[in-house]
Design brief:
It is built from 10 helices and 7 strands. With 313 residues, it is of the alpha/beta class. Helix 2 crosses helix 8 and helix 4 runs parallel beside helix 5. The longest helix is centred in the N-terminal third of the chain and has 33 residues. It starts with a helix and ends with a helix. About 4% of the residues have low confidence. GO terms for molecular function: oxidoreductase activity, acting on the CH-OH group of donors, NAD or NADP as acceptor.
Length: 313
């Protein structure tokens, strides 16, 4: 009887994998059908994640308003979407120039976004500016620019579309944030600060607008990885093997297509908070609350290790 069982086990694995695949496909199909005719705004639509979101929601029959800083790139995305889709099943996207670094233009941009269809059903705040540098090397001007793009811009746009959502007592606002909005990492001071600010703003907003039937979601992910993960280079004389291990675990980011699917699922299930991270960042989040001194010691050791490595190269 042992032989049939051994042969049956691979079959069970294959069947289980097939059922899981079909289940995910059904969920994806249902989520697409739920966004049909919905007015969906996507900021930084020409980025990797923005483009993948645009394709998913366009195929789902949403009325897209695509925002970006480059008109040429927006037009290219428009052509790509309209050429690949059935015009009887989809709507031609509307394009809006949006640059969060130019806060003086935000009032006009908000008016243009709302005027496209007179309302907004789903707002996806996807714009982000990243920076890696020691604190003492970052100027106040750069600090302000990062805060404009990562915090003031999304919060201002959310405030702008809020009146139409409140009047209709429905709507969904999604902040595609970063795990660093909940966990600060060395050499990312300005970036982490802006993401913390955005996280706090949308957490407050969620509680304030719940009575109007408006859903506010945040998706906290590790870095976006548009290519295959590259191995972390190890120096034979590195003294801190723990930081090397953590760096290796952190080197695997989130693929744009995977994150876009999660955005679609978040709209479908109306989840309020999503974390897309490997075990190491998740453990770090727990340590931040339960054993902060230990976490700070590990981060400090990692900084010393990186400085020593640079000196030895």
């Amino acid at each position: 009887m042992a032989l049939p069982f051994v042969m049956l086990l691979p079959l069970l694995i294959v069947v289980s994998a097939g059922v899981y695949y079909i289940y995910n496909e059904i969920l994806l199909f249902m989520s697409k059908s739920l966004v049909r005719n919905k007015v969906v705004v996507i900021t930084d639509a020409v980025s990797g994640v923005g483009t993948e979101c645009s394709r998913l929601f366009h195929k789902g029959g949403a009325r897209l308003i695509l925002c970006g800083t480059s008109w040429d790139k927006l037009e290219s995305l428009y052509d790509s979407l309209t050429n690949d889709a059935d015009p009887k099943e989809t709507f031609a996207p509307k394009l809006v120039l949006l640059d969060f670094s130019d806060m003086e233009s935000m009032e006009d941009v908000v008016a243009e976004v709302v005027d496209c269809y007179g309302c907004v059903d789903v707002l996806i705040c996807n714009s982000s500016m990243k920076l890696k540098a020691p604190v003492q090397n970052i100027s106040l001007e750069i600090d302000r620019n990062i805060m404009d793009i990562n915090y003031f811009g999304p919060s201002t746009l959310a405030k702008g579309v809020l009146p139409t959502m409140i009047s209709r007592r429905s709507g969904h606002i999604i902040l595609v944030n970063s795990i660093q909005g909940r966990l600060a990492v060395p050499f990312r001071s300005s970036y982490a600060a802006s993401k913390h600010a955005a996280q706090a703003f949308f957490d407050c907003l969620r509680a304030e607008v719940e009575e109007y039937g408006i859903v506010v979601s945040t998706i906290s992910h590790t870095f976006i990885n548009a290519c295959e993960p590259t191995p972390v280079k190890e120096a034979a004389s590195k003294p801190n093997s723990l930081s090397t291990f953590i760096a290796r675990q952190m080197s695997h980011g989130v693929r744009p297509s995977v994150l876009a699917n999660e955005v679609m699922q978040t709209v479908n299930r109306k989840r309020k908070e999503v974390t897309m991270a490997h075990p190491i960042p998740r453990v770090a989040l727990c340590l931040r609350s339960l054993l902060p001194s230990f976490l700070f010691a590990v981060l400090g050791a990692g900084v010393k290790d990186s400085v020593l490595s640079e000196q030895m190269q």
